[in-house]
Design a protein that fits this description.
274 residues; mainly alpha; ABC transporter involved in vitamin B12 uptake, BtuC; 81% helix; globular
Length: 274
């Protein structure tokens, strides 16, 4: 693995994994605590429409996909903020509609040369330096927003009704959170792909939840776990010639299962001794 770092694409891959992990730690924790994992999945799949639009118009892929994802997030936030009972319907419509739009626009693009597999399963080994700067800027925006609204997010995440009674702008924060999800999922798509984006957003926070003393602690612990998964997945992919995104998620899944097994064993031993 050390030998591989002489190549720029491998160094860029490590940076991309680190930058995406920061977003995963912050946004993933908010997503898991607020129980909107599948809503984030809808945002991710709707972002596929941005890929199709970028190819059709000849625009840069990452900025266009970010913009489209933010627009989709705003639309979903507007509908679900009025009536959360309609959330499932909105998730289904946006999930399928974004994918369909992206595919249709790609069909209308003459001689398009977009590698669809890289967006479905990730292209962390092909992240150019300009995209790293954009990812870093998005991280600064996401982390800054999360810290600025931290107290409000914390109250809203655990009891939205109580937060509203206390004067917390729950509706505004709902829009802000969906926008942050829209920005972060595009980064995660670059690392593990559209199909696996939900796993990297939910597995690290899922392992930490219940063990972290606060939401902030949950965020940075999740970011560290996500970074470890990315590095380990890159090592596996490099040594065994595997698809990088799938290798990263495989490491995360194995770690999640092992963590759950250890917790059950400890609980069983504690009950036996008690």
């Amino acid at each position: 693995m050390i030998d591989a770092l002489q190549f720029e694409f491998m160094r860029n891959a490590l940076w991309a994994g680190l930058l995406a992990s920061i977003a995963c730690g912050v946004i993933g924790s908010l997503v898991v605590v607020n129980r909107i994992v599948f809503l984030s999945g809808a945002v991710a799949h709707a972002a596929y429409g941005g890929l199709g639009l970028a190819s059709f118009m000849g625009w840069p892929v990452l900025p266009c996909t970010v913009g489209f994802s933010l627009a989709a997030s705003g639309a979903m936030a507007a509908v679900t903020a009025r009536d959360m009972r309609r959330a499932d319907t909105v998730i289904g419509v946006m999930w399928a509609g974004g994918m369909a739009l992206g595919i249709i626009l790609l069909d209308f693009t003459p001689g398009y040369n977009v590698d669809l597999m890289s967006f479905l399963f990730g292209s962390i080994l092909a992240v150019p330096t300009p995209d790293l700067w954009l990812m870093a800027g998005l991280d600064v925006l996401i982390v800054g927003t999360a810290l600025y609204f931290y107290k409000d997010f914390e109250v809203m995440s655990y009891d939205a009704e109580f937060a509203a009674v206390r004067g917390v702008p729950v509706r505004v924060l709902h829009f802000v959170l969906l926008g942050m999800i829209g920005a972060s999922v595009v980064m995660v798509i670059r690392v593990v792909g559209l199909i696996l984006v939900i796993a990297l957003l939910s597995i690290p926070p899922g392992m930490v939840m219940g063990r972290a003393p606060s939401l902030l602690s949950m965020m940075w612990r999740s970011a560290l776990l996500s970074t470890a998964f990315c590095v380990a997945g890159l090592m596996l992919a490099y040594h065994f010639d595997l698809t990088t995104g799938a290798a990263i998620i495989a490491v995360a899944v194995v770690a999640y299962v092992a963590c759950g097994a250890v917790s059950r064993v400890r609980t069983h031993i504690g009950r036996t001794r008690g």
